[in-house]
Specification:
The chain is an alpha+beta fold. Helix content is 24%, strand content 27%. The strands form seven sheets. Strands 4, 5, 6, 12, 13, 14, 15, 16 and 17 form a nine-stranded mixed β-sheet that branches. Strands 1, 2, 8, 9, 10, 11, 18 and 19 form an eight-stranded mixed β-sheet that branches. Strands 30-31-32-29-23-33 form a six-stranded mixed β-sheet. Strand 1, helix 1 and strand 2 form a beta-alpha-beta unit. The protein is globular and about 80 Å long. It starts with 15 loop residues before the first strand and ends in a 14-residue tail after the last strand. Its EC number is 1.5.3.19. It comes from Mesorhizobium prunaredense. Keywords: Oxidoreductase. Belongs to the GcvT family.
Length: 824
């Protein structure tokens, strides 16, 4: 039901504000509420129609705290905390109730995934109980328990009224001084010469020092007027409301049948049946009704037939229920099914909060708090790198790309969240110059930031289709062979997707010295593994710097964080620096030749002296291979002797052919990104976004050796890092783990227990084909310090889907802990 907003008569804001928020849905209201709660006074919020119009008003209002990752759970759990207290604070009823969520599993695979998520809940003190089909039926009498394997019940979850909840946030914001103005449409926006933002409305121009766009579906088009690329796309989203049903009591839990693509919640004595069908219906913005505040789209029973059929299977009483309402409304989706918040790259003080993938009510509170803290402090106060608006590549705003990807993304809400899942849509966007070579060798391709990358190689004539599993996916047998070749002979990997930025100019060295914790003022040809930190010493980038000349540096980073790395570097290029940053990613293909026989192979195709004395580890030289001139970096991410060859793109095929032919006599084998992940984990090499994030420090990550404490001028984050160094034993450290039982498989997010107590979780894990059991990295937290004594004299266990497995712990890698193999 739509309530009448209490903000009448319309109040026109003053001409200038410190902060201006555009959008009066759950996202905008939450940001306004949290900014005001944290002391900001000069805030205005403009809504083009009435508060909650757009998409908030038709949300289902589900509150689910437990997510598939610790980072998302950290944000989601705050919603229940805030929504439960809003009425007391604002006087506005929200309809929030903790009637719990009952998540049922129709298959053993889904039950296992559900149990993994239930383990995550324990880290946050959330109650999540795995129960039998009969126990589930006691909680939900209308349930057809005969078709499920089991369930999870989370009593602290529930539901809320979206309109009333949004109104409570708006009232709370208004009580703390926020000016809220309805029926004021922003028709244009621009940036002034002094760095402020101005928006045009029918009542004139409003100026602000900080502009926040929280306009839901309309954010992309409004942001584009400023040159900002916001990759969101609309899709139709469906639910039906039944006539009154006897079992639909106020205490009935929300039922989530993800195998059936449906959720069911009590709605004033009726049942609301909503869907995240396997394939959605993308909706171009041009097809939205014009001048309609509360948009409703035509019914589509044909599209809704599958989820409704599944709903009847799980709750048979629905077969005889009358339908009081079929609702179809638009929602916005992102390419990776994660919302986006943060400061837009290249546009200081322009922030967005959008793309909630039909989960605005579920994430709105936590996201609003996180963005408000970011705006006030000038940088994030928690790890939100995974939802940072800077994570996207410019091509991802392409409407055709978004249209096709959105159809798949909507369904991913309720599909199995398999480890290493590869999207099926919007593929073939970015291809290495070697793509056809890999395809002929039997590559199974995956996607990373639009790049088609070999993930594994099938045997001759064998299928390359992924068969996913939490136990043993079909690629394991092939990846094990690739890993064996890396350890015994040699492998060739395509790492052309590396992000490559050329930083050059008179101040390039001094600029990078200030940004990087390591010393990059090194001789030409020296490679430096280093990091850029925030003011709290958190890790913002994980990069390799190659000094090409006195004024030129080539920065190499992972493909998946390449846009975010570029944004971090570019935001620091102020007028005081004589520095330019150029994206060179497409200019070089990269072949990585790795393994104990790599020197023998490379020696067959170049006349360069490759001996240790002539070509030491962590150095770079220009060398000839075949007819080509390439940059050869003696580096490894697999823990072996090897070189990363940066080849002018137009010469990549020639170099590949020459190296591949020469390598056949030495056991050279093609390898993919799965092998790379297994091999780097054996050597305990860190990976950004998994083992390194903006809330981890280099000392905690075991990377203190990369820091130059004495270089002239210091570096960003040095004071905070030095303070941690001088504070005594670290209370948090990244630790290596090895399971004693060879059967279980580690992937990500499994709980770490020390003497029975939860102390952390696995940040990245693999089945090690070299060691013969699963290994992983994970941060351990201990108030007295994570010391060598604690590591060696404690009982360690890893919890996987509720079961405990004994593990060995170490501060060093279990494979080649001294790193001798890479330097041989």
């Amino acid at each position: 039901m739509i309530t009448t907003p209490p903000f009448r008569p319309r109040e026109v804001p003053t001409r200038h504000h410190e902060i201006l928020i555009v959008g009066g849905g759950i996202a905008g209201a939450s940001i306004a509420f949290h900014l005001a709660k944290n002391g900001k006074k000069d805030i205005a919020l403009l809504e083009r129609n009435t508060l909650t119009s757009g998409t908030t008003w038709h949300a289902a209002g589900l509150i689910m705290q437990t997510r598939g990752t610790h980072a998302l759970t950290e944000i989601a759990k705050y919603n229940a905390e805030l929504y439960s207290a809003l009425e007391a604070e604002t006087g506005q009823a929200t309809g929030f109730k903790r009637n719990g969520t009952l998540g049922v599993a129709r298959t053993k695979e889904r039950l296992y995934e559900t149990a993994r998520n239930a383990s995550i809940a324990k880290s946050f003190g959330l109650e999540a109980n795995m129960i039998s089909p009969s126990e589930a039926k006691k909680l939900y009498p209308a349930l057809n328990a005969s078709i499920i394997e089991g369930a999870v019940f989370i009593p602290g979850d529930g539901q809320t009224n979206p309109v009333d909840t949004c109104m409570a946030l708006a009232i709370g914001a208004k009580k703390n001084g926020v000016k809220i103005v309805e029926n004021v449409e922003v028709t244009d926006v621009w940036k002034t010469v002094d760095g402020n933002y101005q928006v045009r409305t029918k009542d004139g121009v409003v100026e602000a020092e900080i502009l926040v766009l929280a306009c839901g579906l309309w954010t992309r088009d409004l942001a584009s007027k400023l040159g900002a690329r916001i990759p969101i796309y609309a899709a139709e989203h469906f639910y039906v409301v039944t006539d009154a049903m006897d079992f639909a009591t106020p205490t009935l839990p929300v039922l989530r049948d993800t195998d059936g693509h449906v959720y069911l919640k009590e709605d004033t004595g009726k049942l609301l049946v909503g869907a995240f069908e396997p394939w959605g219906k993308p909706l171009p913005m041009g097809k939205l009704p014009k001048d309609t505040a509360f948009i409703e789209l035509p019914e589509d029973w044909e599209h809704f037939e599958l989820p409704m059929t599944k709903a009847i299977e799980i709750v048979p009483d629905l077969a005889n229920a009358g339908i009081a309402k079929f609702f179809n409304g638009p929602e916005s989706f992102t390419p990776d099914l994660l919302f986006m918040i943060g400061e837009v790259p290249g546009l200081k003080n322009l922030y967005v909060s959008t793309g909630y993938n039909s989960e605005g009510i579920e994430f709105g509170a936590g996201a609003g708090r996180a963005l408000a803290e970011w705006i006030i402090a000038g940088e994030p106060q928690m790890d939100i790198s995974f939802v940072d608006v800077a994570r996207f590549h410019p091509f991802q705003v392409n409407k055709r790309y978004l249209h096709d990807r959105t159809a798949e993304v909507l369904g991913l809400h309720y599909k199995m969240h398999w480890p290493a899942y590869q999207p099926e849509t919007s593929r073939g966007v970015r291809k290495s110059a070697l793509h056809d070579r890999w395809a002929k060798l039997g590559a199974s391709f995956g996607e990373g930031m639009g790049w088609e990358r070999p993930m594994w190689f099938a045997g001759e004539g064998e299928p390359t289709k992924n068969i996913y599993s939490y136990d043993e996916p079909n690629w394991f047998k092939y990846v094990s062979q690739e890993c064996k070749a890396a350890r015994n002979d040699a492998i060739l990997l395509d790492q052309s997707s590396f992000g490559k930025h050329l930083v050059q100019g008179r101040d390039a060295c001094r600029f990078l010295q200030w940004l990087c914790a390591g010393n990059v003022d090194v001789p030409v040809g020296k490679l430096v593994y280093t990091h850029m930190l925030n003011e709290k010493a958190g890790i913002e980038t994980d990069i390799t710097v190659n000094r090409l000349s006195q004024t030129e540096f080539l920065i190499i980073s992972s493909a998946t964080v390449h846009p975010r790395d570029k944004a971090w570097i570019s935001k620091h290029v102020t007028d005081e620096w004589n520095v330019t940053v150029t994206d060179m990613t497409s200019g070089y293909a990269v072949l990585s030749l790795q393994g104990p026989r790599s020197r023998e192979i490379l020696s067959q195709v170049t006349d360069t002296n490759l001996a240790n004395s002539a070509f030491p580890f962590a150095t770079s030289q220009e060398i000839d291979i075949g007819y080509a001139r390439v940059i050869a970096n003696r580096l490894t991410y697999v823990g072996e002797l090897g070189w990363e060859l940066h080849i002018p793109t137009e010469m990549a095929q020639h170099v590949f052919d020459v190296v591949w032919e020469a390598g056949q006599a030495y056991g050279l084998k093609a390898a993919g990104y799965h092998a790379l992940e297994h091999l780097r984990s054996e050597r305990a090499y860190r990976e950004y976004q998994l083992d390194l994030t903006p809330v981890d420090t280099l000392l905690e990550a075991g990377l203190g050796f990369t820091v130059d404490w004495n270089k002239e001028g210091g570096f960003i984050g040095k004071d905070a890092l030095a303070s941690q160094k001088n504070a005594g034993p670290l209370k948090k450290r990244l630790v290596s783990f090895k399971l004693r039982d060879p059967k279980p498989v580690l992937f990500h997010e499994e709980l770490i227990r020390c003497d029975g107590r939860i102390v952390g979780y696995i940040s990245s894990g693999v089945k090690s084909f070299t060691i013969g059991t699963s290994i992983g990295l994970g941060y351990v937290n201990h108030p007295a310090g994570v010391t060598k004594d604690l590591i060696e004299n404690s009982r360690w266990e890893i919890e996987i889907a509720g079961k405990l497995y004994e593990a060995d712990a170490s501060l060093r890698a279990f494979f080649d802990p001294n790193g001798d193999r890479a330097k041989q």
